[in-house]
Design goal:
heterodimer; A: 257 residues; alpha/beta; Rossmann fold; 6-stranded mixed beta sheet; 4-stranded antiparallel beta sheet; 9 helices; 29% strand; globular; B: 355 residues; mainly alpha; ABC transporter involved in vitamin B12 uptake, BtuC; 14 helices; 2 strands
Chain lengths: 257, 355
């Protein structure tokens, strides 16, 4: 069974501590969600795992291999990463953009396999109509799908998504999370995403990781760990939890001062 | 009968074929320009005579073709191509449509190097019979110009090493260098004699009348050495277009790639500018024209830019020789006169996806 193991990970920016002593184990086929207030280090943790930032201490082990000892190209084949809010300056077509993500497999020219995998993922994500449109002519939701397609076309075993639903309307939020669910379940991926939307996290994650001040504050199944008290401790705001249809929802108290 | 929709891969291949067709026609266009360029000049030689001289020598025009026009047109082809690939790489690596090796101060530094050589008397010059100034003894000039271009590259690398090779660091350092060397050149001109100032100004106009076989071979080999790796990394540059994080996740080291790109494109620009003077605009305009006709996928953009750049310089050179014949205008003036209307036309017709 594939798994990701993070041991004693710390990250400093200059001398400011961002992440301290993170220990986390993520098995395949389950979606982990990092939740916590702004600046708590959620994105930094994802970037450390993706190899974009170098942690100051600690080890990240994927499938028994220390990521520090894997070369960039191999690492790229293992990890698919979806960053927040980016747009290219000169835009290529959707097909070309997704094909670019096959870099770790391309030597001089993309092979037949590269082209076929690109087509497969385009169809899977329902982007056929847009395949030859330029990426700055498509909507924010469609671009988010392209970024996810870029992460998936490499056929990684670990999927990292930094706020995949920010800037998306309700329909796309659900659509994007459904795609992620489908791939994680069917291909047995290891998956971690971050979000600011507590209700989205409740609905779509299997395991919730609550973070506070660069540390993991609580971890467990969403319904069992989230309560009014813990949210107040982490977010410093009073909330109400409402039960409806066997699900729970978090809402802030009224604005009356 | 039901028509099945074409597979996406087949559609992609069809689009690729169209792009190859565009690239081939630019190549054909360049060949056409090459022949015209060999024919035209103060004495007209017919195309069939030109081809005859190229294959078997032994005509009265041998010297004109082999010693004057051929090195000139070949230099034009590879200087245009080299400036274009340098511009395309810089724009993509710095993620900035306005960036070019010229904005990085390469040309100002080369200009200063040449001015210094002229003022200290390393480059000899005489008044030509047409009223222009002809600079003799190029070699010290070329070496001095090249040396100062390399100084700029080293300063940029040094700053990038200590502050990180972000586009902002590189562009700001380049602009600073550019102003510094322009000021230093003005200083030289202020204290130079009239003849020296005239020579400096003449050198600063990029001109193909300085073309020689040695210049051609130097430019040609540098062009080959820098464009092969750039072409191989075209998908890496595609990733760099989105952002550094995406590039890193695809196994590309963005800072290293950016720095290597700066070195390669500055090197070819430094060599071209040292031999020919400042030929502006091709760096900036060729990649944009190429982008407008073929799109931004660097796999196709790089070869297209190269061909557009070569075409612009060869055609500009032809025009510069015939428009006020027998006076030959500096080609740098014509490239701007030719490039600006093309760019403006394309800007008016521009589509949203260009940038």
């Amino acid at each position: 069974m594939k798994r990701l193991k993070i041991e004693n990970l710390s990250f400093y920016y200059d001398k400011r501590k961002i992440l301290e002593n993170i220990n986390l184990e993520v098995p395949e086929g389950r979606i982990f969600c990092l939740l916590g207030p702004n600046g708590v280090g959620k994105s930094t943790l994802l970037k450390c795992i993706a190899g974009i930032l170098k942690p100051n201490n600690g080890r990240i082990i994927l499938n028994g291999k220390d990521l520090k000892k894997i070369n960039l190209n191999e690492l790229s084949k293992l990890i698919g990463y979806v960053p927040q809010n980016v747009r290219p300056i000169f835009s290529t077509t959707v097909f070309e953009t997704i094909l670019t993500s096959r870099i770790p497999y391309i030597n001089w020219n993309p092979s037949k396999i590269d082209l076929e995998k690109t087509e497969y993922i385009i169809k899977k994500l329902g982007l056929e109509e847009l395949a030859f449109r330029y990426v700055n002519e498509i909507s924010g939701g469609e671009w988010q799908k392209v970024l996810i397609a870029m992460a998936l076309v490499k056929e990684p075993i670990l999927l990292l998504l930094d706020e995949p639903t920010s800037n998306l309307d309700l329909k796309y939020q659900v659509y994007v999370m459904k795609i992620i669910h489908e791939f994680v379940r069917s291909k047995n991926l290891i998956a971690i995403f971050t979000t600011h939307d507590i209700n989205l996290a409740l609905k779509f994650s299997d395991i919730l990781v609550l973070m506070k001040n660069g540390r993991i504050y609580a971890i467990g199944e969403p319904c069992s760990i989230l309560n009014e008290k813990i949210i107040q401790e982490v977010y410093d705001i009073k909330v109400k939890i409402i039960q409806y249809d066997n699900s729970i929802f978090v809402t802030t108290e009224s604005l009356a001062l | 009968m039901i028509l099945l929709p074409e597979s996406i891969v087949i559609q992609y291949k069809k689009i690729s074929w169209k792009k190859y067709l565009i690239i081939s026609s630019l190549f054909f266009c360049l060949f056409f320009a090459f022949i015209i360029s060999l024919c035209s000049g103060s004495s007209y030689i017919t195309p069939s005579e030109v081809i005859d001289i190229l294959i078997n020598r032994g005509s009265e025009f041998d010297i004109i073709i082999w010693e004057i026009r051929l090195p000139r047109v070949l230099t034009a082809i590879f200087a245009g191509a080299g400036l274009a690939i340098a511009g395309a790489t810089t724009q993509v690596a710095l993620r900035n449509p306005l960036a070019s090796p010229f904005t990085l101060g390469i040309s100002s530094a080369a200009g200063f190097g040449a001015a210094l050589a002229i003022v200290i008397g390393a480059g000899k010059f005489i008044q030509s019979y047409l009223g222009g100034i002809i600079v003799f003894s190029y070699l010290p000039l070329i070496i001095s110009a090249f040396f100062f271009s390399i100084v700029v590259i080293i300063v940029i690398i040094f700053l990038a090493k200590i502050k990180g090779a972000t586009p902002e660091t590189i562009i700001l350092t380049g602009i600073a260098m550019s102003f510094l060397f322009s000021a230093a050149t003005s200083f030289m001109q202020y204290f130079g004699t009239t003849e020296q100032v005239a020579s400096i100004v003449f050198w600063l106009f990029g001109s193909l009348s300085k073309a020689s076989w040695i210049g051609f071979w130097t430019i040609f080999f540098t062009f080959l050495i820098i464009s092969i790796p750039i072409y191989k990394w075209s998908y890496h540059y595609n990733a760099l277009l989105i952002n550094d994080e995406i590039a890193k996740n695809l196994g590309v080291n963005p800072e290293k790639l950016r720095l290597i790109s700066m070195i390669l494109s500055s090197l070819i620009t430094a060599i071209i500018v040292s031999f020919l003077g400042v030929i502006g605009f091709i760096c900036l305009v060729s990649p944009h024209i190429a982008r407008m006709i073929i799109g931004s996928d660097n796999r196709y953009l790089f070869p297209t830019s190269i061909l557009v750049g070569a075409n612009i310089l060869v055609f500009s050179d032809i025009i510069s020789r015939i428009i006020l014949s027998p006076i030959v205008l500096p080609v740098g003036i014509i490239t701007s006169f030719l490039g600006v209307p093309v760019l403006l036309y394309l800007l008016i017709k521009r589509k949203k996806h260009w940038y």
